[in-house]
Each structure stands twice: as structure tokens, then as C-alpha cells.
Specification:
Length: 107
Amino acid sequence: MDNNLSSVHTAAEIPDMRSTIDDIQKILQTIPFNEDAARQKIYEINAKHPDNKMIWNLFHANIPSGISIQQASKENLYQDLQWKAYYLEAKILGKSVDEMRKDLQNQ
């Protein structure tokens, strides 16, 4: 089974993903943390890159994911944005799911 994320991206996709990563970093660095901006960005990324949720659930199969984005705490939102920034960077680099798992285990 080929577990690579789609490693072929159009010329527009990579700059778009980099822009999204920049947006995430701005939200994460804003004090006080803007929960509304975080929620909106999470919704946008989930709509554009639904595979990020599938891979997250694969890595965290033993953790129930019953919290909605609306009910998520600041900490949950912050962690979700950190994951999404990592995921998008891995996608740009064409990392496999196994490579991503190793990266996360080594953090």
C-alpha cells in the first residue's frame, strides 16, 4: 500500500498551503489567543484538507474524539492548529504516513 500523501501538487497548491501555515502561525502567536479565529481556520482547513482528520485519528485511535470544534478549549484549539501546521508542512514535503508517525513519536 502506498501511504504517501499526494506528493504531486499543482503550482497553486503549495503556496496556498504555505499561506495557510503562515495564517496558523499568526493565530498561534496572537496574545490573547483568538478562539474565534482559531475555530474559523480549523473549519477552513478541515474543509480543504479532510485527510488531516483521518490521519490524526489514525495516530490517536485510542483517544476518543468527541469534542466538537465549537466546544473545544483554547488548549485543544491550539493543539489542533499545531497539528494542522505540521500536517500541511509534511504534505508539502511529500512525507509518508509512516514518516509522519516517526516524526511525532520523536517529539
